[in-house]
Amino acid sequence: MLTALVGGVALGLAGPALAQTAPAQTAWRLLDYIAVDYPEAVADGKITNAGEYAEMQEFSATAAKLIGELPASSARTGLERQAGDLQRIIAAKASAPAIATAARGLAADLIKAYPVPLAPTIAPDVARGKTLYAQQCASCHGASGKGDGPQARGLDPAPIAFADEARARERSVFALYQVLEQGLDGTSMASFAELPPQDRWALAFYAGSFAYPESEAKAGKTLWDGDADLRQRLDLEKLVGTTPAALAAQVGEDKARQLTAYLRRHPEATVAAEAAGTLTLARARLDAALAAYGRGERKTATDLALSAYLDGFEPVEAVLSARDNTLMVRIEGAMADLRAGIAKSEPVETVKERVATLDGLFADAETALAPSEASATSSFVAAFTILAREGLEALLIVVAMIAFLSKADRRDMLPYVHGGWIAALVAGAATWAAATWLIAISGASRELTEGFGGVFAAIVLLWVGIWMHGKSNADAWQRYIRDKLSKALNRRSAWFLFLLAFVVVYREVFETILFYAAIWGQGNGGAVIAGALAAVALLAVIAVVMMRYSRTLPIGTFFAYSSALIAILAVVLIGKGSAALQEAGYLPVTPWPGLPRSELLGIYPTHETIGAQLVMVVLLVAGFLWNRRSAIRAGRAAA
Q: How many CB atoms sit inside 10 A of residue 289's CB?
């Protein structure tokens, strides 16, 4: 009874919001349903379901009428002729393949002549679609898409069974999106036009995956990864508009099922294929952002500009940073300036100039990224620099924790610290394996991991730094040992130490692994390994020196130095964490012209990151002053 669901739509669509696009979209949807449902009405030239056949006639007539009402154009006459041909072959009870071919051909020509959005601007988040489906759709369509939800009983017509493969193979994601956008008049299927377009696309992809089990997705990934020609032919727009049946005609039924199972769960794979090795995707997203901004669609322009960075530029950022860090910094800054300009509603010409500047920078980047630029020396330097830089922050924090526990004679707590950083290394190895064989880690996921990890660590270090500063007075430390230490460092504290060691190390391991994966892909594996080993050796020397030096320091001096080191690291990490959240689009970007940038110190030239660091400095200073006053009062009381 799926055709019954659209009868009301064909006759009852109304509303000012759809006034411009409804005729073409509605005609397209009617043609799509004719192609899908005609086999239920006619078989072997005979009517098998009179009600369904009557709807086929009605829908083809309505589609022809809607096409005739479209704005005049050179293409409309041809479309009207095709619509008349479709009516005639339906009246003649033609075969299902002939009807499907005619209806699909007319629908494709209709969209060419009267365009509507055919694909999402960026790859949809299918996990978001799963959440929305559970909230909005499962009550009727069922948790597994079989049309058997708790509210489905008594509905006439019954909800669509997305898990029905016979129907699903004839339905594109675009068709599902159209239903979500317009709803179905006369049924319980309401319009979801209030949802953002990206959410509707995410829902369409998720609903379109039910008929293709996840067990086949792994084989689909293998097919996709191993066929460069297929990746070139099937971009995001073609994926959205292609039915599984049409794909089967190109690659065969089994492969089509496997590819559909994979790509409808991972549409971002089409974007990754497009972006591999070049900045083509970044350019395309920026052009689309500029076009959207020119139309006054600031939110869309913002999303596209963010996608240009996360999906287009960040996949090559690691390699570019290793070969020309100055250029990488310039591109990051220019992309941040573009997003800030869009947020401030700068004139279109100004935004256009920013996009043109980035286009020139991308040309320089592609020169630097050329395979000819990948030398053994550059790979060694990149591997050494990245691991030494990322590992130093984590090392300083972990060594400070170990030294503190040794000084406090609480070596029983050391296994928790060691367990934390070892677990982080294991999790890092699992991340590498997952990123290599199971999933593609998006730019947004990377930035969020780095951002929230950095902010969490900075907040913890704020507390630890103030606490250690308060114990820098020898008398205060002795009192603390006598009165509180045995109680304070209990099992809860031990697991807290484990968590802190895990977070600070995993944050750095996560970023290092992604950088190394990019560098490794450029060849010179021996040089990469040599650079990594050299960095490990350097970090080991630093750790040994710090541990030996800490043993010789008086307890008060040790705490004074440690609190200063941890305070500095807290300021650095809050800056880095805030910058990562900006790059993920979770914080606004307000450039601070003329301010220098230093990744080592976590200084980024934006008001938000500098503001976060200033707040951290103020809190640290306030805590240190409070400690000083407390020590003075304690000294007076003792006297």
A: 27
CA atoms within 13 A on the CB side of 636: 6
Cα 434 to Cα 446: distance, rounded to the nearest angstrom: 13
Residues in the chain: 639
Asked whether the bond before 371 is cis by omega within 30 degrees of 0, the reply is no
Q: Are the CB atoms for 599 and 573 separated by under 8 Å?
A: no
Domain ranges of the chain: 1-116, 118-275, 280-372, 374-638
How many Cα atoms within 13 Å fall on the side-chain side of residue 601? 8
Distances, alpha carbon 637 to alpha carbons 485, 630, 632, in Å: 22, 10, 9
| DSSP codes, 20-69 | TTHHHHHHHHHHHHHHHHGGGTEETTEES-HHHHHHHHHHHHHHHHHHHT
- Which residues contact residue 560 at a Cβ distance below 8 angstroms, ignoring those fewer than 6 apart? 469, 472
| Residues 285, 537: Cα–Cα separation, whole Å | 42
Q: What is the pLDDT of residue 529?
A: 87
DSSP for 194-233, written as a single string: TS-HHHHHHHHHHHTTTTS-GGGHHHHHHHHHH-HHHHHH
DSSP string, 381-415: HHHHHHHHHHHHHHHHHHHHHHHHHHHTT-GGGHH
Bridge partner residues of 606 (DSSP): 591
Closest CA to 143 of 156, 154, 130: 130
Encoding tokens for residue 390? 């990322």
Please give the structure tokens belonging to residue 438: 């199971």
Give the N- to C-terminal CA distance of the chain in Å, as an integer. 91
Q: In angstroms, rounded to a whole number, what is the distance separating the alpha carbons of residues 12 and 187?
A: 11
Residue with tokens 């530029």: 313
CB atoms within 10 A of CB 340: 19
What SS3 class is residue 191? coil
Tokens of 105: 């051909």
Q: Give the whole-angstrom CA distance, residue 462 versus residue 467.
A: 9
Closest CA to 83 of 38, 4, 30, 43: 30
| Of 9, 34, 36, the residue nearest 87 (C-alpha) | 34
Alpha carbons within 13 angstroms on the beta-carbon side of residue 470 total: 18
pLDDT for 589: 82
Cα dist from 247 to 7, 183, 202, 208, whole Å: 28, 27, 21, 14
Angle between helices 314-323 and 325-343 (to 10 degrees): 140
Residue found by looking up tokens 């992809």 in the block: 205
Question: 333 — alpha (psi -120 to 50), left (phi > 0) or beta?
Answer: alpha
- Tell me the β-bridge partners of 42: 47
Distance CA 455, CA 584 (A): 14
Given a cut of 50, the residues of the chain with pLDDT beneath it are: 1-21, 273-277, 437-442, 474, 477-478, 480-488
Q: 13 near 22, Cβ under 8 Å?
A: yes
Residue 93, SS3?
coil
Q: Quick one: pLDDT at residue 395?
A: 83
500-526 pLDDT, tens digit per residue, is: 788 778 877 877 776 776 666 555 678
From residue 403, how far is each of 400, 558, 563 by CA, in Å? 5, 9, 12
How far apart are alpha carbons 600 and 586 in whole angstroms? 23
pLDDT, residue 9, reads 32
Please list, residue by residue across 623-639, b when 16 or more beta carbons sit within 10 angstroms of its beta carbon and e when fewer do.
bbeebeeebeeeeeeee
**Matching residue, tokens 């000819």:** 372
Kindly report whether the global pTM for this prediction surpasses the value 0.85: no
The CATH number assigned to the domain with range 118-275 reads 1.10.760
Determine the pLDDT at residue 332. Answer: 86
Of 273, 107, 272, 124, which Cα lies nearest the Cα of 209? 124
